[in-house]
Specification:
Chain lengths: 351, 368
């Protein structure tokens, strides 16, 4: 509510705003000031200003015009659009609330009834996915609803459903009123798993592999601090047992911001787990630096001792009448399997 | 002839699939089925997979999980206090005649400590550890254990405490190695400043692989089948109660505080079905009297209460101080006394040891 006076010249009397109460003029012949609520009516003496009509008395501004702060003319209303994202960062597959707010810049008051539209976009190479859209278009997540109307408090809420893939998403909101300032407005959100950092290089304990040129992801060795501690314990124990053999060769862990690790670059489920910085693959085939077949037993034992879960993954392309046969990754023929690796859950539990 | 054999084999498999209930199912065809003939679990799961050119090769895949639980183990133990008031723990493993696997792994997760050249039980934080410190822990852990020949011992700090493990050093994935059914292996042990309580040992038989082996990316661990499969691995051991370092002796020595700790630990046995709740209440009254007496500086009264408790326990089981580790299995069986319904024999032995420790520290067996 305002405090401007809207007294209107009515000859011998003064009419108060739209309340139509009447008061006498003062001894100088003027109407009293500063006791009235704001309204859409303005003071006039002989005729209404532009964009106003003398509806009854006083003048009323034509829609969408409103009285200026001095109540002497009608001006276009000015709205300010802003965006708030809560929280400012969201985990993959979780949701965040996007709130658009419209304020009347003339009065500083929330503006109800303004239609706001919003859309989401994504930086296609963000989140460690340098492959971009080379294989397939990248999903942007969901945004519901696409448009909304501000409530009495000037806000309208949208729900962003983050995709499984981590990355940087931006929202562009626009209100349909031509007098909206800051229009359109954008804001960003990071879809990410917090608390991941890269495995520090330490060639005396391990070698980082898998991010070579030609791969879809080059930065593939991110873990939580707890998982890194477990990894170091595993690597030291292994090197202590086999000081004259190659150190562990560490393949994919998680991407920089975690989330889906689509190793084929097609944005579809690729690696199971490898999303939250607690799982890493360790080479166990016949390639350079792999855990040799004869060390499997003690490697698994030291993993168990550190409460680390170690599954073996290999290839089984033999098909029987019901599907693929159960693989024997330890079978002697398994040594020829280029895909064989340990799938290590460093915290002992699945992600 | 070949046809007949094939038919019989298939029939066995089919019957096993039909008879045994599926533990979980999500996508049609998925399931985990226990095969009673082999004692293994057959896992069928949907695998989303495509080749490098993007061709969808998704389909049902299979994995077999062989549990390391086809054993019937017994742990015999002895606990002694040496001249330095350190507790010496010794264990013997026996693999029962009904076992189908060799016994090859023996694990404790301790919250108590063991004696080593450097402290092993310590909080592990998320801070990446110092390499030299980890290596020193590793060596100290190995040296702190008594390990029989042919076995590998380790004491490894972890997030929840300290894991003690002994593993048989098998070669070439030979599943015929280890403690054979009907045989036993002694020589496991360590010393500790902590008094014994009852912990759960994990024992495993000899299998080729202790985890799961999958083709490709394997089962989705977030799926129903995946969760069930991981549960199989998590529980891939035979639990067995054993006396382990649990109760810290207060420094400086305070009999009232120590009795409180013993009593608190004793209460956990009710849930483990090792102690009858009514018998526990009966012991509680003597615990309270003894604790109060020591607090009021009336050691003779405290000792009297402890002696009463010892009498009650020894009424339930005889010969509680017996050294079980060095007995032959036959002697063990022969000496196995009556089964008390009020307190398990191992619990009685531990409580007997702990209470006697208090009286020894308070002046031993001297008459009042």
């Amino acid at each position: 509510m305002g405090a401007e006076s809207d007294w209107i010249n009515m000859g011998g009397e003064c009419a108060a705003c739209d309340v139509y109460a009447t008061f006498p003029k003062d001894s100088q012949g003027y109407c009293p000031k500063n006791i009235c609520f704001a309204s859409y009516h303005i003071t006039y003496s002989t005729s209404c200003p532009a964009h106003a009509q003398p509806i009854g008395n006083p003048c009323t501004c034509d829609d969408p015009y409103v009285p200026d702060p001095t109540k002497t003319s009608c001006v276009l209303d000015q709205y300010s659009l802003s965006l708030q994202i809560s929280p400012g960062q969201v985990e993959p597959s979780k949701s965040a609330k996007i709130i658009a707010k419209v304020i009347d810049t003339l009065t500083g008051q929330p503006k109800e009834g303004v239609t706001v539209g919003i859309k989401v976009d994504v930086d296609v190479t963000s989140g460690g996915h340098v492959h971009g859209e080379s294989e397939a278009p990248r999903g942007k997540g969901t945004l519901i609803p696409a448009t909304g109307t501000t409530l009495a408090d000037g806000t309208v809420s949208f729900t962003f459903g983050a995709p499984e893939v981590s990355g940087k998403h931006s929202f562009t909101a626009q209100c349909d009123n031509p007098t909206c300032t800051n229009n359109p407005i954008t804001a960003e959100i990071k879809v990410m798993v917090d608390g991941l950092s890269t495995i520090p290089g330490d060639p005396s304990l391990y070698v980082l592999i898998g991010g070579e040129e030609g791969k879809k992801h080059h930065d593939n060795h991110y873990l939580t601090d707890d998982a890194k501690s477990q990894l170091v314990v595993l690597a030291i124990n292994y090197h202590f047992l086999y000081p004259n053999q190659p150190v562990l060769h560490l393949n994919d862990a998680s991407l920089e911001w975690g989330g889906l690790f689509d190793f084929t670059g097609n944005w579809k489920p690729g690696h199971h787990e490898h999303k939250r910085g607690t799982v890493i693959d360790i080479r166990a085939n016949e390639a350079t630096g792999a855990v040799p077949f004869n060390n499997f037993d003690r490697f698994e034992k030291i993993a168990l001792d550190a409460q680390i879960n170690a599954d073996i993954h290999c290839t089984s392309d033999k098909i029987d009448h019901q599907g693929r046969k159960a693989p024997d990754c330890i079978g002697l023929d398994g040594s020829q399997d280029s895909n064989r690796h340990y799938h290590i859950r460093l915290m002992g539990v699945a992600e | 002839m070949k046809t007949a054999i094939l038919y019989t084999t298939l029939l066995t498999v089919v019957l096993a699939f039909l008879v045994m209930p599926s533990l979980a199912a999500a996508v049609p065809g998925e399931g985990i089925v226990f095969d009673s003939a082999s004692g293994n679990y057959n896992i069928t799961y949907w695998e989303e997979v495509s080749d490098d050119t993007g061709h969808d090769l998704s389909g049902l895949s299979k994995a077999t999980f062989e549990p390391a639980t086809k054993i019937d183990p017994v742990i015999s133990s002895s606990i002694k206090m040496d001249e330095n008031k350190q507790m010496v723990y010794r264990y013997k493993l026996s693999n029962g005649m009904k076992s189908k696997q060799m016994l090859v792994r023996f694990v404790f997760d301790l919250t108590g400590n063991i004696n080593a050249s450097r402290p092993l039980l310590k909080p592990i934080s998320g801070t990446p550890p110092d390499k030299q410190s980890i290596l020193a822990d590793l060596i100290a852990g190995v040296q702190a254990l008594d390990t029989p020949s042919g076995w590998d011992g380790a004491a490894v700090p972890n997030f929840s405490g300290l894991r003690i493990s002994w593993s048989y050093l098998r070669t070439n994935f030979d599943i015929t190695q280890g403690v054979k059914p009907g045989a036993s292996q002694s020589g496991f042990g360590f010393s500790s400043q902590d008094l014994p309580g009852i912990g759960i040992a994990q024992l495993q038989g000899n299998v080729k692989v202790y985890g799961l082996q999958f083709s490709g990316e394997g089962v989705d661990p977030g799926s129903d089948i995946g969760k069930q499969a991981l549960q199989l691995v998590k529980n891939n051991f035979v639990p067995h109660s054993a006396a382990v370092p649990t109760i810290a002796v207060p420094t400086p020595f305070d009999p009232a505080v120590l009795l409180e700790r013993i009593q608190t630990h004793m209460h956990t046995w009710i849930g483990m079905k090792l102690l009858d709740a009514t018998f526990s209440s009966q012991l509680d009254s003597y615990f309270q009297s003894a604790i109060s007496a020591y607090r009021l500086n009336q050691p003779q009264v405290g000792k009297k209460q402890i002696q009463t408790m010892l009498a009650l326990i020894n009424k339930e089981h005889t010969d509680l101080g017996r050294d079980e580790e060095h007995e032959s299995d036959k002697t063990h069986e022969k000496n196995d006394d009556r089964k008390s319904v009020l307190i398990d024999r191992l619990a009685a032995r531990v409580l007997d040891f702990d209470l006697k420790y208090v009286t020894k520290r308070m002046g031993g067996d001297k008459d009042d």
